[in-house]
TrEMBL record:
It comes from the Bacteria. This is Sulfatase. Keywords: Membrane, Transmembrane, Transmembrane helix. The chain crosses the membrane at residues 17-36, 48-65, 72-90, 127-150, 162-182. Signal peptide: none annotated.
Amino acid sequence: MADGDTWRDRHPSTARILAYGTTALSALLVLLALLLPSQPTLLTPGHFIRIPVEAIFGAALLLVLPPRARRVVSALAGAGLGLLTVLNLLDIGFNEALGRGFNPVFDWTLLGDGESFLQDSIGRAKASAVAIGALVLVLCLLVLMTLAVVRLGNLMARHSALATRITLVLGTLWVACTVSGVQMAGVPVAAESTAGVIQNRAQQVRASLADEQAFAKEAGADAFRDTPGDRLLTGLRGKDVIFTFIESYGRSAIEDPLMAPGVDAALADGTKRLRAAGYSARSGWLTSSTYGGSSWLGHSTFMSGLWIDNQQRYRTLTASDRLTLTSAFKRTGAWRTVGIMPGLTKGWPEASLYGLDRVYDSRDLGYQGPKFSWSTMPDQYALSAFERLEHGKNRSKERAGRRAEPHSKPLMSFVILTSSHNPWAPLPKMIGWDQIGDGSVYNAIKKAGKNPVDVWQHTAHIRTEYGKSIQYSLHSLIAYLQKYGTKDTVLVFLGDHQPLAKVSGDHAVHDVPVTLVAHDPAVLKRISGWHWTPGLRPGPKAPVWRMDTFRNRFLTAYGSQPGSGAPRPAS
């Protein structure tokens, strides 16, 4: 073997094949990156059989640059294209789950929340494997895209005459297709999507940064900011008020042909049962600030009277002293305020924003049973613990005709039910209230439930199980009110957002049902002007309000007066 012989010298045919293959793969990788859409519905073969104008301009630029500049520009362009591909993939995931694209300013923290959700759903080991795989994919895209563009740039430099002719032909063809409007499979052959994506990204970043100042100004305007406690919620004094969010309880659950029959039957049956117990209800629609997830954005929008649709707004709100719907009860001094938060597994600083005297998270509710995928405990158990720890103490004193310390005041409760959180398998089922105990009884129920992996193989199965989860949450809440409610109980329950697009469908509205239930007719009389539908099911023509308008409407309906004044002892 001669000195200096290389592998290429010894195997020239194989080396040529590998070189051609690597070049072809480089070109394919660049084209796929330039044509990759941000919407999952656009991932069709026809979308990738197009001529991207960015490739033509990029090739023309590399052909006229000197060698050193060409290598630098190629490397930068490749890294940029790799980053753009990562952002497009994030867009696809966010559009599929949350019904919106990825915001490069606000949404990075949601990736950590997504990993936490995976840990709760499939276990820490599998979630870690997914996270490592995603990180490896990102690094590979950045490195391989850079190498691909550099390789193509060097190849064009070595064959500049041929590359120039091909670039001119493709440029002419692109112009002709643009002028004549040539399409393939309903998609224009002449593509210019990447430039538009980059422009949209830049506009999104500018708008996101400008939103901080706009929101700060908006948050500073609050008609009830200085209202003293004796002028707040005078129409609900003496009532036990419960605000309850049902996870992912959206309009689709009530109106979708596959899910609606079971959910509507549960609402109709619940209306009948509560009417027999002396309760009446009115229902309407609220447009949530979030979709498919990020429940805390919906909660804070409803409670604060501000439109909280991103993490920056949420952080600004939680650092403020904004009067929330629940903290208004606290300000009066007339209610004990508590939170039942089975979805919380660690400290929750937001309790001060919501004016809660006591927060019970998953560690405080005494549950000794199994998790149901993401949900730490069944809704019926969480409500049973609420009765045992707080509400039942007041009920026993009411039956004795007195209220005594330490819970001498009526309750205002903020309850979040989580059994309808995805992946909707396995699901708990209703059992006798006297059978719940410490929750150990749910071990057998979980074991008999469905596997999330099996459910998520078919969209129809996912939607069916989602509908069943909403039915379970509704049955739990209605049965609780039927068994433990009193003549002074007032219940407001609603969804925080629609389920993800795989369930609610592409381009679904962001509406969620909202219902107010009371035993005292005077409570419902105060909202007669809202024109809500009688019963637990809002009608198709019931009013649709933005969720951030509810706080002021509710405060006003129940006697709150905007403005300041000398505080007087609460009645």
